[in-house]
């Protein structure tokens, strides 16, 4: 190869962040190389969703021009691209980024405004964000002053669940959110009965009280109470998937007790035996509620 040919060959070799047209995304001498920001623009315009998401992350390596591309992607036709751009911009402090994020719509097709949740998560007010999530889910189910029943969970809009998930996932850096809980739930294996999986899931994420050798009879019954453990902080040090606390979405009206009531939360296990005797017909508690909600999340293709 002549000196001239070597010079040409070196000039078309891609840099670290250049997009390459060719098999396996690797550069060969005969491949067409789209250099720099122009290559990123091409992939954003013509690639599949996965390629476009990769191109978005590469765009930030090209300074202001790349940043502008990511900001423009907030208006993309694809929700996945919009939220990928949002995730890349969420922790940036440039004025134009903050203005773009402020104008990004967080109102679902059902008319629920999630900007209050975004503010709390961006401020790392984890406990308040958890409480607000419950309020918003109940609002989406038209149950604002009550609790979720089975039919409410099954009718929850996937878009509302998706927005909540994206906000939690982005601002927790991937530790919390419905998609994280979905992944943990699916990792437990479908061969187990739902009840056993519900209890194991709650153990894994830090909701389900553990049994000890010193537990009394009533303490053993409290084993079935599924709620946030008091000794686990409401923050990034909590177990993965701990938030939002979907275990707090259930509830019901207590009509009578089999024994004298103690101070146990009404977020307990709903079943037979001598612990709780009678609840209102639409009460929905513990592992049954958690399993039902996780299955609803699993049924939403928008939630990864």
TrEMBL record:
Residues 108-251 form the GUN4-like domain. One of its GO terms (molecular function) is tetrapyrrole binding. It comes from the Bacteria. InterPro entries: GUN4-like (IPR008629), GUN4-like_sf (IPR037215). This is GUN4 domain protein.
